[in-house]
C-alpha cells in the first residue's frame, strides 16, 4: 500500500481562508495586519519566495511592504531600515529573507528586528522563549510541520521522532517543538554514526539535510510519517526534496511531497504569525 500524501497546498488553502477572516476582522477594527519584507541581493529562489510571501499577504488581506537592496548593499543601510520599521506602529511583522550576501553578519541582522515583530521566530529571544515553553514566535517551517502532523492526527506523545539536520531555522526548533509535544526526539547530523539505525526506528522522520533524495525507502520504518523539508533543484530544473519520494512512499504510512508539501506551509505560518502579531498589537492598544 502506498502512503497517504499530506497535501501542503490543500492545508494551506484551508488555513489561509481562516486567516483572511481574522485579518478582515482586525482591519475592520482599524488594525490591518502588515508585514515588511526585506530582500537583499539577486538570489533567484529568494526572489520567488518573497514574491510568494507578498502574494500570500495580498490574498489574505494582509498589507505588505517590500524593500529590495542590491547584492553589494551596505549592512548599515539594511540595519537602518529595520530600525525604522521597528519604530513604525503600523508594521506588525518584519522579515529579512535568508540567505544574506557574505558582507552581512546574519545574527546581527536577525537580532536587530524587534522581538515582538520577529514573525520568522529567528531572534535569540524568541528561540530562548520557545526552548522554555514560553509564548514565542515559532519559526515558520517547523511550525508548518507541526500543523501538518496535527492535520493527520498523528499521535506525538511517546512517538519516536528523528530529525535529520540541526540548522537553526529548521532542525533545532523542530526538535524543540516535537519534544514539547511529548515525542522522544533524536537529532541526527553529519557526525551521526549509523544513520539508518536511527531512521529505521522513527515513527516520525523529518528530513532537513539539503541533499536531494537522500532518504530512501530502505531507511524508513514501515508505516512511519515522513516529512520532507528539503527543496533542491535538479540539473533538469525540476524540484525535489531530501526524500526519495518514489521509494519512501511505498514504505511510509504518510508522506509530504515536494513541491506542494512543507514549502507552502512555511509561507502560511508566516502569515499566521503576522496576524497574531497584529492581534497582540491591537490588544496592547486597548490596554
Ligand atoms: N527569512 C526567511 N528566510 C528563509 C526561510 C524562512 O522561513 N525565513 N525559509 C527558506 C525559504 N522559504 C521561505 O522563506 C521558502 C521555501 C520554499 C517555499 C515553497 O513554497 N516551496 C514550494 C516550491 C517553490 C518553487 O517553485 O521554488 C514547494 O515546496 O511547494 C516557501 C518558502 C530559506 N530562507
UniProtKB/TrEMBL annotation:
UniProt catalytic activity: (6R)-5,10-methenyltetrahydrofolate + H2O = (6R)-10-formyltetrahydrofolate + H(+); (6R)-5,10-methylene-5,6,7,8-tetrahydrofolate + NADP(+) = (6R)-5,10-methenyltetrahydrofolate + NADPH
Keywords: Amino-acid biosynthesis, Histidine biosynthesis, Hydrolase, Methionine biosynthesis, Multifunctional enzyme, NADP, One-carbon metabolism, Oxidoreductase, Purine biosynthesis
Transmembrane segments: none
Domain Tetrahydrofolate dehydrogenase/cyclohydrolase catalytic residues, every copy: 6-120
Amino-acid positions noted as binding NADP(+) in the UniProt annotation, renumbered to this chain: 165-167, 231
Family matches, as Gene3D superfamilies: Leucine Dehydrogenase, chain A, domain 1, NAD(P)-binding Rossmann-like Domain
Domain (Tetrahydrofolate dehydrogenase/cyclohydrolase NAD(P)-binding) ranges: 139-280
Entry protein name: Bifunctional protein FolD
Species, as recorded: Zoogloea oryzae
Gene giving rise to this polypeptide: folD_1
